[in-house]
Amino acid sequence: MGVGSPLAAQREPVLKQIAVPHPYYFREMYLPQLTSGPSSAAWSPDGTELVYSMGGSLWRQRPGSTVAAELPHGQGYAYQPDWSSDGRFLAYSHYHSDRIDLEVLELATGRIETLVQNGVQSALSEVSHV
User: The sheet that has 57-61: what strands, in order across it?
Assistant: First the structure.
């Protein structure tokens, strides 16, 4: 089957309830890309660790090590992690129940706080400095 064939696969729009100028933009830019390898890697502020998304989870690993630890994130897909400047927290996108939230994970305790839920900002508590 050649390029431009009338039988070429058509992708169904993702999250039909969201009106955007072009469905490709939302699907490729905002929804998590489920990968079998690491993506969206972020270095710790001191440069000794990486956090990356893979298979819908967040993973923490030291370069040169063959061991990675899966970080807690609840149900759904966690992706696009980023460290706080003091290295105590990770902010990340979390997709579940047909919505995308912005969450913060406190690394020492495993406590998760939702900062933005379904596009609505929540009351920011102790982690408002992230």
Answer: 39-43, 50-54, 57-61, 68-71
